[in-house]
Specification:
Blueprint (H helix, E strand, L loop, with lengths): L3 H8 L3 H21 L1 H44 L3 H6 L7 H8 L3 H16 L3 H8 L7 H17 L3 H13 L7 H15 L2 H14 L6 H14 L3
Helix pairs in contact: 3-5, 3-6, 5-6, 6-7, 6-8, 7-8, 8-9, 9-10, 10-11, 11-12
Length: 235
């Protein structure tokens, strides 16, 4: 029966052979490096440039976001004061929401400017323009994103596009539901379905308020509207 040392001897080469193997491997590596030295140098330079570019991008984005936040302050002030033209176009000194989106749209603050611009244009009756901003707005904030979807639904309703309205009211009602806003979006969804003539879908929307949000102030109206929608649906 072979001993442990004998087994190791069958696996490991003699020391002298191992040294020759290492020398041969090192020699081949050195030869490869010499042959490809120029290409390897270019690769290292390229990696360094890419790394520097990525670092600069994030640094630049941070500065841009800060600038956008400062620009947003005055624009949002005008928006809340119902000075919608100044909010959108600026006052000659401070940028308006449209310019903030154009210049800083890739930043977080610039993205939020899309929401405000869409909301302002909706109030001005410029529904298609409002949709351009609202449909391109994205947020991780449950309340703001759902509100953006709802406003887009409102714009579609004003344009008599009930399919678009239903699509966006569904998005609003389904985005991280909560007890305060979701029932409102479901009411809008139900009404849009009724305008579309889909009374069964309308009744389902009202029923979701009754069952899932039974403490909501909309429940009483939802019960009445559900009964009417079911009657129109022939149930």
């Amino acid at each position: 029966m072979a001993t442990i040392k004998e087994k190791e001897a069958t696996v490991l080469p003699p020391v002298a052979d191992a040294e020759v193997l290492m020398d041969d491997t090192w020699s081949k590596s050195e030869e490869f490096f010499q042959k490809n030295k120029k290409n390897l140098s270019y690769l290292l330079i390229a990696l360094a440039v890419v790394g520097a570019g990525i670092g600069y991008y994030f640094y630049s984005q941070g500065n841009k976001n800060k600038e956008a936040q400062e620009a947003m302050f005055q624009a949002v002030y005008y928006f809340e004061a119902d000075s919608l033209d100044k909010a959108l176009k600026g006052d000659g000194k401070d940028l308006g929401l449209v310019d903030i989106v154009d210049e800083y749209g890739s930043t977080k603050a610039g993205n939020l400017a899309k929401f405000y611009a869409g909301a302002a244009l909706l109030q001005q009756g410029k529904f298609e323009d409002a949709l351009d901003y609202l449909k391109n707005f994205t947020s991780n904030d449950a309340l703001v994103q759902a509100r953006g979807y709802s406003l887009a639904g409102d714009a579609y309703m004003e344009l008599k596009d009930t399919d678009g309205a239903v699509e966006y009211y569904k998005k609003a009602a389904g985005y991280l539901p909560n007890e305060y806003f979701t029932p409102r979006y479901l009411m809008k969804l139900g009404m849009a379905c009724e305008v579309k003539g889909d009374y069964e879908a309308a009744a389902e929307a009202y029923d979701r308020i009754i069952k899932d949000h039974f403490r909501a102030m909309e429940v009483t109206d939802a019960k009445k509207l559900k009964a009417l929608a079911e009657a129109k649906a022939g149930k």
